[in-house]
Amino acid sequence: MIFPPFLSSSPRHRNPPPPPQNPLLEPAAFKAPFLLRHHQNPTPELAASNPQVEYMVALKSKSKLKGGQAHKSPPKKKLKNDLFAKKQSKNDDLLDESEGMSEDIEEQEDFSDGEMEGQSDSGSEASSGDDDPLADDFLQGSDDEGDVSDGDEDSDSGSDSDGVDPEKLSRALDVERARVEREARDELQLNIKQESDEFRLPTEEELEEEALRPPDLQNIQRRIAEIIGVLSNFKALKQDGVRRKDYVEQLKRDLASYYGYNDYLIGVLAEMFPPVELKELIEGFEKPRPVCLRTNTLKARRRDLADVLINRGVNLDPLAKWSKVGLVVYDSQVPIGATPEYMAGYYMLQSASSFLPVMALAPQEKERIVDMAAAPGGKTTYIAALMKNSGVIFANEMKEARLKSLTANLHRMGVTNTIVCNYDGKELPKVLGHNTLDRVLLDAPCSGTGVISKDESVKTSKNLEDIQKCAFLQKQLILAAIDMVDANSKSGGYIVYSTCSIMVAENEAVIDYALKKRDVKLVPCGLDFGKPGFVRFREHRFHVSLEKTRRYYPHVHNVDGFFVAKLKKMSNAKAPSSTTLESVDPESMLDDESNEEKTEVEHQHNQTKDRQDNSMEKRKAEENGHARNDKPKSLSGPKNAEKRKRENEPEEGRKLAVKKNREKENGHGKSDKARSRPGPKEKKKQHFSKGKESSKIREEEKKEFRKKKAANKKGK
Amino acid sequence: MRPLDEAETTAVFSKLFKFIGPNLKSLIEAESHEVTTSAENSSRYCFRLHKNRVFYVSEYLVKRATNVSRKNLVSLGTCIGKFTKGGSFHLTVQALGIMAPHAKRKVWVKPTSEMSFLYGNHVLKGGLGRITEGINPGDGVVVFSMSDVPLGFGVAAHSTQDCRKLDPNANVVLHQADIGEYLRMEDDL
Fold it and tell me: How far is it, in rounded angstroms, from Cα A648 to Cα A698?
């Protein structure tokens, strides 16, 4: 046993160290805390409970005490024995215990025959192998001690081997055991304290100092890893008096400084991912994704193209099993973007994530399709290839500078069915007409937070305003896209919305908005891999069908961060019908069923009377990402419980309630930075969970109203 | 976007005729398959002029494109060439797609001098692989690689027989357009 210097200097530790030991058999003090708990020192209690151990212990001591030299070699051999015993015992856990025991015994016999009294040792060693090394260690410890302090006993026992008083011996051994255990426990405490000290968060002064010095990257990296470790096992490893929030804050600061992000972006990412995944995601953003290319099926087949490129010296492989046209390039002797095959239009350099929206769109031959943000043309050419140059594609691009690359790519790839135009996407419905197309692909302009690996400036340049501006634009574009599609088209009626961003505000929130504003519903994308989109995120509650959208992350799927959603237009009406929308929980389902008829009537009523109020409300609400009903008693959710109660109790006309609503809205002073364009007024469904009482009251009231309105209508 | 008038049509057709000869007829009368319903007869192809560029499009596409205003329309179908300010018509590389299948006179280039042609140089005798018979000087010629990938087109400098007697550094085909222009001169297309 090799004792580290800080151990207490009891007499026995001053002895010369024994022969080098197997680390497995080191005394308990040096074992990791958890091992200690499992492989308990044979405490007196344990020894008492396990007579075999005790007997063995006694025997061992006897054998060792017999001769000075003799006990040195047995330890070595015993080591091997115990090693095997330990290994055997581990195997035994899997096998039948009895079998293992017998195996143990057999093996032990092989070894122990030569060296010691074979009879009992093997039997006793066959007992829990876990106890053996400790017992052994203990004995060795005691041996050392025995050399010094128990010399008397030695001589006694030496003279009369059978006359040794086992009681005295065992008592002495017990005392020793107790002491060793005590010391081990103390050391353990010391160790734990030392280890936990390393996880200490830096104090403010230290932070200030750090801020002055140039950033110490290694230190920061280590701290990141430690904090993540603490957060994963918070209860056990946290520092006293430090909240989880502090750890998270420090982690965010460290990540921001180490990887070069601005605070807003790190904050948003930290909200979306747990700490371990957050680090993986950020690491994923650091590395570039592999270069991919897509075979142009109008001109070549993937196999042939792969052969030709391999001949040129390109190292490539099929991209993935979900794509029949993709190839991934590992390295290349020739510039992959300048081969004669590229120039002849046999393939297109594209990122793997760009395949996904077109695969989701699944354009059929002879359809009319619009790609609303088409440059540089990778997706448009893929659509044309899938359609085999039939039908019509309108490739629209707002920025003139990018039009050239779009047309060049189209011509290079041999696409003949495309019309390229230069409009703002929002104006396209006016140009192309409403309800005229079969499918629309909207690869919306976004903040680009999913492609940080391509563009590092996103890390520092994106703020809340940028995201909100993007989200606003995307909402307008998606409404325009939906308006262009003909719901009654024979083979289509689909809109695919995709972004290269992972922000919830640009993805799920926009789709949720579209679901409320138009008569569309989400359908499965047809992509069998990818994480489903969020249905809930912090304070947002989205439509339950949003789990059909797909999110892609670099650290999970090895593609750029991406989001794809596929919508089907149910009817050409501008208002969403009640049947298409489902609610989040059954309570509101009940309300919805009772509301169906009534709300349609109300809807018209609403339009005529409360247009302004509701539009104000709705706009504010939409911009804040909440679902709001245009009915006055729509303020649901925990925050508005009070309002709800106040409004529900008096059985007043809706106008009054609406006025109240408006007052409260104005009172709260929610500023809407960006208003949605005045769209048609639609009925909205309640998505938040409601309190049971208030919902019942509301139900009753609604029934009454329904009757009234129905009566009014009939009267008219 | 408007149909070509007489003078323009003759200019375009004469240029095309140089390269594809009598196959021009099939080009003009080609039927397109870009229709949505089978009831409708497949429409034919036609030429349209838009901002000094000539496009070869199916009529079906043309009808759809009338929605797009003149300012905002950029391209239709396949662009085959453009009119210069002086009024003469030049074919661009994008016409290769429709010319290559119908080409009458072809020249195949050796792999070693492929890249040279793609950089815009003329085809030299040393790089010549195969050549169709019956070429007269001044004829339009489509240039292919040995694996039958169309690389571009040009004008023959000498007749086929003369080509056999040329020394290796002489021009066989004078370069007019090649697919390397997609990378070199993307903006000019």
Answer: 6
Strand A418-421 versus strand A536-537 pairing type: unpaired
Angle at the Cα of A597 (from A596 to A600), degrees rounded to 5?
90
Place of tokens 């995307």: A474
Distances (CA, A) of B29 to A121, A209, A708: 102, 81, 68
Tokens of A359: 């695969």
Q: Give Cα separations from A278 to A271, A340, A353 (angstroms).
A: 9, 42, 21
- Whose CA is closest to A617, among A699, A695, A676? A676
**Residues A629-650, buried b or exposed e (16+ Cβ, 10 A)?**
bbbbbbbbbeebeebbeebbee
Say if the Cβ atoms of A340 and B182 lie within 8 Å: no
Interfacial A residues in 318-377 facing B (CB < 8 Å): 337-338, 340-341, 343-346, 366-368
Q: How far apart are CA A328 and CA A598, in angstroms?
A: 56
Compute the distance between CA of residue B53 and CA of residue B117 in angstroms, rounded to an integer. 25
Distance CA A649, CA A640 (A): 14
- Chain A partners within 8 Å of B76 (Cβ): 418-420
Residue A391 near chain B (CB below 8 Å): yes
Residue A107 in tokens = 């093996």
Is the alpha carbon torsion for A90, A95, A97, A99 positive or negative? negative
pLDDT in tens, A66-77: 444 444 444 444
Tokens coding A391 = 């039908």
The letter for the amino acid at A476 is Q
| DSSP-H helix ranges across A369-463 | 378-387, 400-412, 428-432, 458-461
Strands A536-537 and A540-541: antiparallel
Sign of CA dihedral A285, A290, A291, A293: negative
In A448-576, which ranges are E strands? 494-499, 520-523, 531-532, 536-537, 540-541, 550-552, 562-569
Q: Which residues, 6 or more positions from A421, have their beta carbon under 8 angstroms from its beta carbon?
A: A394, A395, A396, A397, A431, B68, B72, B73, B74
Judge whether B62 and B78 are in contact, CB under 8 Å. no
- Chain B residues inside the 8 Å CB shell of A412: 179, 182
Q: Which stretch, A139-148, A242-251, B111-120, has highest mean pLDDT? A: B111-120
Average pLDDT, chain A: 72
- The residue ranking higher by pLDDT, A653 or A416, is A416
Asked whether the beta carbons of A407 and A420 are under 8 A apart, the reply is yes
Mean pLDDT of A31-58: 51
Q: Tell me the C-alpha to C-alpha distance, in Å, between residue A244 and each of A191, A232, A606.
A: 24, 11, 48
Measured in angstroms, the CA of B36 and the nearest CA of chain A are apart by: 5
Q: Are A366 and B179 an interchain contact pair (Cβ–Cβ within 8 Å)?
A: no
Structure tokens, A663 = 């007052």
The sign one gets for the Cα dihedral A631, A637, A643, A646 is positive
Q: Which residues contact B26 (CB under 8 A, 6 or more apart)?
A: B102
- The residue assigned the tokens 């039908």 is A391
Would you put residue B6 in left (φ > 0), alpha (ψ -120 to 50) or beta?
Answer: alpha
Record the pTM: 0.65
Q: ipTM exceeding 0.85?
A: yes
Is A500 an annotated catalytic residue?
yes
Taking CA atoms, A429 is separated from A432, A488, A491, A492, B85, in Å, by 5, 17, 20, 17, 36
Q: Which residues pair with A567 in a beta bridge?
A: A495, A522
